[in-house]
């Protein structure tokens, strides 16, 4: 299969076309008299995702009776901040979520991660492609175990689209706006948005950016943190114009992304909204918020629509490559656990729990859902794949950009002010 570029931090990485990964995180342990204790931080606070980690820990401890792993569930929106605080305090978890990009680069440069180069063994080594590990590589060393690649797009309700008279999924922004008008007329919010958490709102800017900006520009900005190319302003203007059509749920500025029935994912899960723009972890979150806590039967997916006149390569994708890292001082058993969760059976269990395609190629054979097949098909065709922009840019610049997008959507600033805020944060580093 054709490889494609994945923009990550200061490097453009080549990623195998079927490499796919997911989200969660880890804690700091010790070794006493042959007994080893470790802490794992992960970001699934309810449902099958949290149960996966409980089961994985129990299975690993049964095979390794000298090891005890204490799991801490951290809400996804709190993860980066809490993890950075723990790392900076010198008391990090042993095993934790690794989002990659500029965030991972900063951890490596601060000496906070264990080098996994040459330590990947067993089925994880056999069945996770070399391309998948490229996204977890910096300075030719591997720093995390990839679990799934999570491309973004619009997850939607086939039933609500059909009821509204939307007979074909939108391929352009103009078509999306027309579909939104029909959905609104049918009595549902066209698109759910959890802007309270900032990053879901910023995803809209990221996607307009990958449509407006050439891959080379995306890469240069990842290095320079300079948003002076006109395509960035055009993307901000695109989003501002789109927002004026009022496509989002009422109260989207105070709506959370993934917590409870009133969240953006909950609105989709309960047929209160036609769909939402999100990464490929969304089906699992939506499933945990349906009335019976089972997958939404009519859930489907389509790629972010194209814009006219943009310099981005048509069909380009954006998404996260999430994995797990060990802290620099974690015991060697931490690496054993990473190899364990990369194994065939554990990757199948991961896929079933999170409803996202596993990175292990043997486990990928278990994928049955149409929407995941749709994601894989689009991903395999994509000429270019970028990491999420806030990951590419690193925590400080990424967070500032996310807040600037929300300010614009709230009417507190303009597209030009959004770009000015991004440039100001980039100048500070």
Give an overview of the whole structure.
With 429 residues, the protein is an alpha/beta fold. It is 44% helix and 19% strand. It folds into two domains: 4-150 and 317-381, Periplasmic binding protein-like II (D-Maltodextrin-Binding Protein, domain 2, 3-Layer(aba) Sandwich), CATH 3.40.190.10; 152-302, 3-Layer(aba) Sandwich (D-Maltodextrin-Binding Protein, domain 2). Strands 1, 2, 3, 4, 5, 6, 9, 10, 11, 12, 13 and 14 form a twelve-stranded mixed sheet that branches. Strands 7-8 form a two-stranded antiparallel ribbon. Helix 10 packs across helix 18. The model is unreliable at 1-28 (pLDDT under 50).
CATH-level-2 architecture of the largest domain: 3-Layer(aba) Sandwich
Question: Helicity range of the residues?
Answer: 40-55%
**For the report, how would you describe the main beta sheet?**
12 strands, mixed
Q: What is the mean predicted local confidence, pLDDT?
A: 89
Determine the CATH superfamily of the largest domain. Answer: Periplasmic binding protein-like II
Uncertain spans: 1-28
Domain unit count: 2
| Shape by Cα distribution | globular
Gyration radius from CA atoms, angstroms: 21 Å
Query: Which percent band covers the strand fraction?
Result: 15-25%
First-last Cα distance: 37 Å
Derived structural class:
alpha/beta
Helix count from the secondary structure assignment: 18
Count of individual beta strands? 14
CATH class descriptor of the largest domain: Alpha Beta
CATH topology descriptor of the largest domain: D-Maltodextrin-Binding Protein, domain 2
Layout of strands and helices, then pairs:
Layout: E1 4-8, E2 11-15, E3 26-32, E4 35-42, H1 47-63, E5 67-73, H2 76-88, E6 95-98, H3 101-109, H4 122-127, H5 130-134, E7 137-138, E8 141-142, E9 145-157, H6 158-164, H7 173-185, E10 189-191, H8 199-212, H9 215-224, H10 230-243, H11 264-269, E11 273-279, H12 282-289, E12 299-302, E13 317-326, H13 333-341, H14 344-354, H15 370-381, E14 384-386, H16 389-393, H17 395-409, H18 415-428
Parallel strand pairs: 1-14, 4-5, 4-6, 10-11, 13-14
Antiparallel strand pairs: 1-2, 3-4, 6-13, 7-8, 9-11, 9-12, 9-13
Helix pairs in contact: 1-14, 6-7, 8-10, 8-17, 10-18, 17-18
